[in-house]
# Entry
Amino acid sequence: MAMAALRREGRRFLLPTASSAPTIAARSAISNEESCLFGVRSISTQIVRNRMKSVKNIQKITKAMKMVAASKLRGVQIRTEASRGVWQPFIALLGDSPSIDVKKNVIVTVSSDKGLCGGINSTSVKVSKALFKVYSGPEKEPKYVILGEKGKAQLVRDSKDHIMLSVSELQKNPVNYTQVSVLADDILKNVEFDALRVVYNKFRSIVLFIPTVSTILSPETIEKESEAGGSLGDLDLYEIEGGETKSEVLQNLTEFQFSCVMFNAVLENACSELGARMSAMDSSSRNAGEMLDRLTLAYNRTRQASITTELIEIISGASALEG
Amino acid sequence: MSSTAAVPFWRAAGMTYITYSNICASLLRNCLKEPYKSDAASREKVHFAVSKWGNGKPEKPNISRLLVLKAVMPSECLHYLYF
# Structure
């Protein structure tokens, strides 16, 4: 009896709003519950529904990002694979000697401008920090040159005193050789070095990126090394055409080598970034889907429970009147 | 025709091999005919921002754009390249 009174009370409370806005009657049962300010009998599902909506939107966004990354990746991957032929002759001629010990080391960290691409930026930062430790010692202090916002943000925290240059907005236009070579030129003009160590993520496949270090020696270092023999000792076997001296040729060669290696490094890193973004966005849209399933289940359960309660109320009220 | 004798001249002008080769490449691109010319020109776009760091702080970024190649090429350099 008391229950029925409460029910009538509630209906009376609702009536004025229903008459002033006739459309309310057309709304679903759930929204009618929502507008019931007095004596809320069931749990509000508003929060869950909002949550579901936002998760759905996030899923849409991550799916779109995945598609964009996938379509961009195809073009960049072809160019990256083509660019590998650019530095290989230099390895044949000058070799790659990461273990060489010199005074002035400059670590060139290649990272991306945008986030949401898995761990590729923190990998290259980690490798750069490790290199920093390896090459630092008495009377020698490595310096950083950073490409990309994300690497900068990570390195600023604990090694901002060692940063010499930072470069960003490199990927506004599609990466081309001219752009990277102008950048390489800028770095060469602003930095004194015996060896440049370029750190980047080499693209192997969509899910596999290998942190890589390429070493570029200064012409003086190469000359010293080739005189001392070792891996660069064979350099004297080459004949030099024209009236140039060996040091002039070496200087031109190292400058060109640096721009070529940078070109490849920037492309490889861009390719890895897109691949990483693709797989990250894939897993996040899958996660969003799972979350949505859980929320839908919870939502339906609550809805059903409230319907059941209402039915029980009606039936028990009716039987109380009868009995 | 550029000859090997040109090297000391562009070195003396403060150019690196990269700048020199870029200028040569840009000249070569200009020799192309139209449908290919604009295609090649799109590969010439330069855009990035460099900032030098001092005392653990970045200075104002210096934004490089397309103008780089044309700007560093005074007419005397062209002269060396052609003759």
